[in-house]
Amino acid sequence: MTYDRSAGLVETARALADGTITSRALVEQSLARIEASQGSLNAFRIVRARAALAEAAAADAQLAAGVRTPLLGVPVAVKDDMDVAGEPTAFGCRGEFPAVARDGEAVRRLRAAGAVIVGKTNTCEFGQWPFTEGPAFGATRNPWNPDHTPGGSSGGSAAAVAAGLVPAALGSDGAGSVRIPASWTHLVGIKPQRGRISTWPRGESFQGITVNGTLARTVADAALLLDAAAGNHPLDPHRPPAVDASAAVGRDPGRLRVALALKPPFTALPARLRPEVRARVVELAERLSALGHTVEEADPPYGQIGLTFIPRATAGIAERVREAPFPALLDRRTRDAARLGGLLGGVPLRAARRAEAVLHRRIGGFFTSYDVVLAPTTAAPPPRIGAMLELSGPATDRAMIAACPYAWPWNVLGWPGVNVPAGFVGEGLPVGAQLLGPANSEPLLLSLAAQLEAELRWHEAWPPEQAVVDSPVA
Question: One MF term in GO for this entry (predicted)?
Answer without folding.
Answer: amidase activity
